[in-house]
Amino acid sequence: FAGSALRTLQAAGASSVALPARFVSDGVFTSSLSVNFSSHSVGVSVVQVTTNQVGQSDADRQLVSRGNPSSPFLFDSPVSLVMLVTPSVNVSFIASRGYNPGVVFNNTLTTPLCLVHRARVLVISPAIVVRTVPENTHVPAVVFNVAINSTLQPSAALQPVFSLASNTLIQTYFAINSTTGVLSAKSFLDREVSSTFNFTVHASAVVDGILLTAEATVLLTVSDVNDNAPVVAAGTATNVTASALSPTGTVLLTVNATDSDHLLNAAINFTLSGSKAFSIDYQGVLSTTDLLLARDTYVLNVTVYDQPLSGSSQMTSFEVVVNVPDRFLVLDPPQFVVFNSSIDVAENSAAGLNLGHVHASDPIGSLIQYGVESIQPLPVDINTTSGSIQLSQPLNFEQTQFYNITILASRPQLIRFGADNASRSFLLQVEDINEQPAFNVSASSQALSIKANTWPLTYLGDFPASDPDSGLQGQLTYSIASGDPLQFFAISQSGILRTNRVLMNSSNTQYSLELSVRDGGRPPLMDVVNVTIFVSAVDVPAFDAPEYEISVPENSAVMTPVLAVSATGDNSSVVYSIVSGNSRGSFTVDPSTGNITVARDNIDAESVQSYSLVVQAAAYDISTAMHLTSSVPVNISVLDENDNYPAFAASTLNFSI
Description:
Blueprint: H1 2-11, E1 14-18, E2 21-25, E3 28-37, E4 44-51, E5 63-64, E6 79-84, E7 91-97, E8 122-125, E9 128-134, E10 141-145, E11 147-150, E12 161-164, H2 168-173, E13 174-176, E14 182-185, E15 196-207, E16 210-223, E17 231-232, E18 239-241, E19 251-254, E20 257-258, E21 268-273, E22 278-280, E23 285-288, E24 296-306, E25 315-324, E26 335-338, E27 342-346, E28 354-357, E29 359-361, E30 369-373, E31 380-382, E32 388-391, E33 402-410, E34 422-431, E35 438-439, E36 447-451, E37 459-462, E38 465-466, E39 477-482, E40 489-491, E41 496-499, E42 510-518, E43 526-536, E44 542-543, E45 548-553, E46 561-564, E47 567-568, E48 574-580, E49 587-589, E50 595-598, E51 610-621, E52 626-639
Parallel strand pairs: 9-16, 18-25, 27-34, 36-43, 45-52
Antiparallel strand pairs: 1-3, 2-3, 3-6, 4-5, 4-7, 8-11, 10-14, 12-15, 13-14, 15-16, 17-20, 19-23, 21-24, 22-23, 24-25, 26-29, 28-32, 30-33, 31-32, 33-34, 35-38, 37-41, 39-42, 40-41, 42-43, 44-47, 46-50, 48-51, 49-50, 51-52
């Protein structure tokens, strides 16, 4: 290569060419191309290295360019190229001269480069093996299979030999097949004896008379299996003595136990059978849950067990005998140590209000149960266990001012021994609270109508109010708070609304009154109601008929009813009168009712056969000081009666025959 290639490059101005090759790693070839130019007047713009390897694609060819092809550079420093090659390959080198990389120098030379051989190595894959094996695994148990990688071709020519490191402990538990490389456990693994192993696997092979070796590190962890039952500590008592009527929760003994397994497999718990008067907790503490009877013997079975995540539990059981000797029983009643003799509660307090608590102690420490002694329902509840007292319903001072409440403290566990209860009473006093008054009116009563000429003290409506309180706090005061600056209206202290004076010279057709009621509390509480009064003008009286016709017998007695006329409008202020047709004064009309009667005993058909009266209805509008009138004709016919004897025209008759 140095000859022909050098001549080619020298023609381009290069003084020397060197292309050494060396092995870097398995299957990788690298070379450094050095081209030196004696003159820098000519540069090399493209350097291309290709291989003539059979089956190589264009994508596998490697192109090395220095600088920008449009700007020539001096190829006077080494250029490295890396390529994957087979053991034997021809490499071609092409150099071009000139500033235009598209113009190839005429003395382009393709020449074989060299023969590259692969190195011979032996490798165990992976180099570090991490495995976990459960303890007590059936032997022989395969741990893993050692795999060999090599650059030797063909790999079938390898005949590696496998072995373990010289370690007595390792060789006691493990073995490796020298031909296949299968690593297995030959003894049972016990995590409680040894939980981890760290050792080396060796492999060797002779190739072309050269000994090749390799090794891998094995990191083996033995996982825990729940294979050990809990062990009760030596010296744990199995025969204990307890006093009769010992307080509930009295500790008799503590069971200590251990489990040699790992983590959750070593977690232990306890169960107890034989009597409900005892219990054992998760820490092995055996205690009483009930009072024990004298001269009794209890045989208990204690079981200690573990709680693995999977698989069956391991357990250990043993008996405990509890002896209760005789004892003289003095059953004094419980003693109250916390008790308030009087509790004040404001009326209307919500149910559930905490009123405090009572507490009683027992000389022998038995369980105390609380209750309320009462024949009739009381407004309190008591927690039977804690003695906390709460209000069960709101209180009303106006109904009940105080309650006498008796609290009982009993010992249900000692009922069979004839134990006495204890009782204490306290006074629950209800505090009076000023409560708000309220109007008791409907929406329909809050709209009223009156005439403009309504007389003073005319009744308009009732607006009563109530107050739950009694005494001074329940005394109510009514007033018109707003809407009546001229005081046309007034409300009594019983809630009755009336006119106070005539609505003189008032142009208002509507009054919006705000009625208020206040109680006698300090400060007072109040309620309001809105009342609208509509004022209408006084109507001109209108008769219910355009004309009246009636007949009266002659000789009718005085006060004989004849006819009743009626005019609508403000009836309370209409005044009736006869304004014409009554020249003889024979009739009269009641000014208030409109009833027409005979006024004189001069009704005579022979004198007057009919009367044409005109009756007037007048309404006085006091607000304007004006009379409003209307009239109607009343025609009265006189009925003739046979009330006259026949009479001769002359008292003396003279005649001739």
